Predict the structure.
Amino acid sequence: MLAISSLFVAEKEYGLYVVCGLPADTFMKNPNLRKDIKKELDGEYSFTMDAGETWRICHIEIATIVMEGAGALLAYTGRNGAPPMPAAAEAVVFDVGGGTTDIYAQKGQIPLAEFCKNSRSAVEKATQMLAAAFEKKYRELSQFEA
């Protein structure tokens, strides 16, 4: 976070107001984790990006921690020409990553917990399954081909 933010901020001292995302299952099953993340990340950090020639200070404040799908929904609706989401609208986000697929659902601004889940199947597992099936019938695939 410090390294990337320093590429965009020229000041020697600056602040970041951060929203973090957690997978749906992790968010719901570990409510204390959100407090722990905030406790661990909130604060002042001194760092250097040039082997100690200059030092910078970053003040980090964790604004909130949301389910990953909620963040994606907020980032999309009402921006770049997309229509704003009506207050009572229902929405679902499928977040397909390398190791998991998360499902986030909400009605209005309220998450529908019974639909917010994740699966350990995602891009990497699908790639492995495809490669194994192809190899069984034809030949071994390179990582690039898979």
